[in-house]
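User: I'm putting together a teaching handout on how multi-component assemblies are represented. Below are the sequence lines for each component of a complex, exactly as they appear in our records. Could you produce the 3D structure of the whole assembly as structure tokens, so the students can see both representations side by side? Please keep the chain order the same as the input.
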Amino acid sequence: MIYITRREHFNAAHRVFREDYTDEENLRVFGKCSNPNWHGHNYVLYVTVAGSVDAANGFVMDLKLLGEIINLHIIEKLDHKNINLEVDFMQGKLASAENIAIGIWNQLEPLIAQNNAKLHCVKLCETENNYVEYFGEHKNN
Amino acid sequence: MIYITRREHFNAAHRVFREDYTDEENLRVFGKCSNPNWHGHNYVLYVTVAGSVDAANGFVMDLKLLGEIINLHIIEKLDHKNINLEVDFMQGKLASAENIAIGIWNQLEPLIAQNNAKLHCVKLCETENNYVEYFGEHKNN
Amino acid sequence: MIYITRREHFNAAHRVFREDYTDEENLRVFGKCSNPNWHGHNYVLYVTVAGSVDAANGFVMDLKLLGEIINLHIIEKLDHKNINLEVDFMQGKLASAENIAIGIWNQLEPLIAQNNAKLHCVKLCETENNYVEYFGEHKNN
Amino acid sequence: MIYITRREHFNAAHRVFREDYTDEENLRVFGKCSNPNWHGHNYVLYVTVAGSVDAANGFVMDLKLLGEIINLHIIEKLDHKNINLEVDFMQGKLASAENIAIGIWNQLEPLIAQNNAKLHCVKLCETENNYVEYFGEHKNN
Amino acid sequence: MIYITRREHFNAAHRVFREDYTDEENLRVFGKCSNPNWHGHNYVLYVTVAGSVDAANGFVMDLKLLGEIINLHIIEKLDHKNINLEVDFMQGKLASAENIAIGIWNQLEPLIAQNNAKLHCVKLCETENNYVEYFGEHKNN
Amino acid sequence: MIYITRREHFNAAHRVFREDYTDEENLRVFGKCSNPNWHGHNYVLYVTVAGSVDAANGFVMDLKLLGEIINLHIIEKLDHKNINLEVDFMQGKLASAENIAIGIWNQLEPLIAQNNAKLHCVKLCETENNYVEYFGEHKNN
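Assistant: Of course. Below is the structure of the complete assembly, with chains in the same order as your input.
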């Protein structure tokens, strides 16, 4: 087993809030992140894939292909978008970094499995100081 | 003359667009940055101040004071905000990085002059790959 | 299980040495780090907490609260301090990065447990080139 | 158990290709990385070692010694070299990041074991966007 | 006047040497950089353009267009290439960072002038520790 | 004219204070930086040298030589040292970043002039958020 990681970026707006709360309640629970007029981030995404090295090409998985899968199914949907309003796999969910990372995992996991590799980790950095890592449902690291 | 620089951050939503354009025209001119549902960035701000070293304390200007001025007059207004809708000094302006940097300069310049120092440069990084520097009206570097 | 990480900083002086050694013995064993007049670092601290996502707010643990706990119990005690002379939880210990990381773990672990989350990792970077990770006594990763 | 990591750098040329392929076949399979005239990288290497803290000096392993081992056995062989033509432990192997990381592991693992510590991870960054991690044959993390 | 900067990357092989020197003389003058089997770098390129803000769009110059010019005329020619053997504008020149930066300036300067902006600086980083800045022939900063 | 920059590091302890002040007065004027038990930083130093490209080797100045000069005359004196107590060129001066940068300039300027190049800038970063730049007495940039 060896692990390869691809880094990608997207810039998006979001708001962390509950529709059943007033703006005041949202402000108390979610702080500045609940601003009704949105705010945004330069998200940095690390996708780690595990597998064995293919003797024919020296790769776990062609990183160009991995990059294309991430761009087509994740970056295209998130970059320069409003995560609450425009991203299909986030509809009906709180737009916390935790939920975005799980949403990205659920998109990528079957696509990477089709390429004889295994998604190992989705790491999503919201700022330089805060990030989230998800290893899937059956993994406690 | 010696130059000191303080780095600060803010996360905000914006949209680059003209009200007198249709969404299609905005998309053609401003690309993905014109998304009507907003997008956002982790902006990084560098404020450079020039002066001579005060023999009494070894400082050009107390960096704690400089940090307080930037936080009170810039970060408080921009952080977790929508630049187009909520920032007083950006009203009626296109929310390009260029105009945000000039707006920040105009806020900070008189405040720093009151402390016997001179604002030298406002550098605003929108992403790791794009940034803007402004040295004021009378300066061509 | 999902993992969230908060980054914090502190600047401190330290010296790695044994009181029962002469300065020459300390120099031989600990190198430049044993300088009797101290030296210092910009330490970077990453605290990783594990838990499940709370459906009510989308969080593993409120990062604002996590930041406050780290600041109150770790950063306040270490920042702009002399680790050997002034930090209560380092008294009587060699001020190596390993021991500082373990000391931070011991401070934070019960406080995070009180908030229904689990401390997963303390990562302490002494320089860009050297860092230490501690996952607790019962964990071999 | 606690983990310490040392970062080192090397700049090298490489080419990812198979001798039994034509240049056209190599281009199709390996893309721009198969350029017959070579290309190169600033590789960043992180070596993580696991062990318990030695009460006598507060260290898992003296980082100065770890740095010397890495420099003598890895950096000296790779820095400002052509990985395909000049590196003994890469002879006859495809010069992918995966295979370079495994090659480095195989060099370092016995040397670190001689010092009563255990090699835990070799992380090799080829660019800011791509990296590989290897934890040894018997480890699936 | 305001300054905008675009960051781009390329990975390339090079060798710093003189054809009229023996390998020994090259080694003495150019050190490890003269390795006859090449070595390489992840070069980071910053292109800074100066101009006034266009009131119609808030830009000094459309960064998307600037990115396209840099990619078409610089990155395409240098990325995954051998700078000594394959880059037209470096033929007959020593492949030092200084000469590569000047070569990039000479390529870009007329192209940016055609877009009503002025090339201000080419900054080329060979490693994290070494970089070169060129402001053109008539500029002493 | 072209500009080359070399980055170096040192870790040191310091205290910003006046001997003619009480600890209370020092605390009021210099804040946490006046801690009598010292604190420290990972200082990052950028030395920029200006010159023309030597046609014989493609260099403004041999970066290896520049690195040796900086290491011998600056890093050796500052690394793992107490700036107030142990650094000859800082004796009798307030150990602010401004004064350290000026001190480094005064050490390096004649040494670089002996090598037919011109010291252009000393940039000293005390933390990720604070840095100082000095261009010499006769230069206002």
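A couple of points students might notice: Strands of chain B lie at 2-14, 39-51, 81-82, 118-127, 130-134. DSSP finds four helices and five strands in chain B.
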